[in-house]
Design a protein that fits this description.
Helix content: 40-55%
Radius of gyration: 19 Å
CATH class: Alpha Beta
Distance between the termini: 26 Å
Number of helices: 11
Strand order of the largest sheet: 1-8-7-2-6-3
Shape: globular
Strand content: 5-15%
CATH architecture: 3-Layer(aba) Sandwich
């Protein structure tokens, strides 16, 4: 039965995503017209279609998998505001969990996507139709050898983030940069039992291109099961989880600083680190642990 559910879920997800991307491609045709008003209308329409597709997947997969997710939302969140968003990351399934948990609660999540994934047709089309930007991730050694890489990547991503200003958006990044494992935690010497060290690159870039952002939405995903593969998700093995959503005001002392300065990066990193320590405490206080 498990394999049947998994197979049906994967076929269904591929079908809905393919249909959705085709529809988004058709809706996005007017973007070629260099008139900002038309592009804003097209962006708004694409976002609403994206939200509807997420809702449809959420309802149908919820029925198939019999999901028992507990979701705690903060007060005063809105679909009419712009946000930064981040989360811990332990599974490919996190993307679906986050989209489902945020659906019609805050604006559609726009993930910063690793540039290496641009060759996957569906991901490339999603990037083009609903403005999910690709992000370069150079290693510290590469940046040390060529410091201009950091500035080039920052400026490129900043331009991409400005597209988010057309319509309320949640610019989202997995702050850890990769999925958590005990091995990665050890290699990184992370001070957190259940988390890797947070990185601010994508979030700082988004903030620099979105001056209207005043708040950051943080998701803490805690699965009951230790099974975390894409196949486990498709089979409904990850149907029991708790998602704790917190909203934090970004201090004016950070938002008022030059986004390209060392002072900004230092203060913003400390701001994220404080949230990360609170996240670790949340995980420790729950019955479900990240493993």
């Amino acid at each position: 039965m498990k394999n049947i559910i998994g197979t049906v879920s994967i076929i269904y997800i591929i079908f809905i995503l393919s249909l959705g991307v085709l529809l988004l491609c058709i809706i996005s045709i007017p973007r070629i017209i260099p008139i900002e008003a038309i592009r804003k209308i097209t962006t708004a329409t694409s976002n609403e279609i994206g939200n509807a597709l997420v809702w449809f997947l959420k309802v149908t997969l919820g029925f198939i998998h019999r999901t028992k997710w507990q979701i705690e939302y903060p007060e005063n969140i809105s679909t009419k505001k712009w946000y930064l968003g981040m989360s811990n990351h332990s599974s490919w399934a996190d993307i679906f969990v986050l989209l489902f948990a945020s659906n019609y609660k805050i604006p559609l999540l726009k993930f910063f996507i690793k540039k290496e994934l641009r060759w996957i047709p569906v991901i490339y089309l999603i990037h083009k139709t609903i403005d999910m930007p690709f992000l370069n991730r150079h290693s510290p050694d590469e940046i040390q050898d060529n410091p201009d890489l950091r500035k080039h990547d920052f400026e490129s991503a900043k331009i991409a983030a400005k597209k988010f200003t057309r319509y309320p958006t949640t610019a989202f990044s997995f702050a850890e940069g990769t999925r958590f494992t005990v091995e990665k935690r050890g290699l990184q010497s992370s001070p957190f039992d259940n988390l890797l060290k947070p990185k601010i690159g994508a979030l700082a870039t988004a903030l620099s291109g979105m001056p209207m952002v005043e708040e950051l939405i943080d998701f803490t995903i805690i699965y009951k099961t230790s099974k975390r593969s894409a196949w486990d998700f498709a089979c409904g093995e990850m149907n029991d989880a708790k998602i704790i959503v917190k909203c934090y005001e970004i201090p004016k002392s950070i938002r008022s600083i030059d986004n390209d300065s060392a002072e900004f990066r230092n203060k913003f990193q400390k701001f994220i680190d404080r949230i990360w320590r609170k996240k670790q405490i949340l995980i420790e206080g729950e019955e479900y642990k990240i493993s």
